[in-house]
Design brief:
Length: 119
């Protein structure tokens, strides 16, 4: 009698595991109910700046950015050595090619100053 009870419980456990596996298989083979949204793409097309400036000189950096669709974003000019944001613009940008101008002032002392445009 104990052997029959053990055998019965053993088959119940196997059937439970098999049922769970079948349910997982059924749900995993169905298409997802939600689709992932494709995020807009922003790509810096060009950056124009003077190749050399004098200490304390005012100058302009022009950044051209291509956007796949309209969305809100930040465009920034950073000091690449420190990560310090020198200037930025937070805007709702229309799709297509967009041009941004940043007015900056060079450092007080002569140095190599590498800037980074970021979107």
């Amino acid at each position: 009698m104990a052997d029959r009870l053990f055998l019965h419980e053993h088959w119940k456990a196997k059937l439970s595991i098999l049922s769970i596996l079948l349910l997982l298989l059924a749900f995993s083979s169905r298409p997802a109910a939600t689709t992932l949204e494709q995020l807009p793409v922003a790509k810096i097309a060009s950056v124009e700046s003077p190749p050399e400036i004098s200490p304390g000189e005012k100058f302009t950096v022009v950044v051209t950015v291509n956007y796949s669709e309209s969305y809100s974003t930040d465009i920034a000019i950073l000091d690449s050595a420190t990560g310090y944001v020198l200037d930025s613009k937070g805007l709702i940008i229309p799709a297509g090619r967009n041009v941004f101008s940043f007015s900056l002032t060079g450092p007080e002392r002569p140095a190599v100053w590498t800037l980074l445009a970021s979107v």
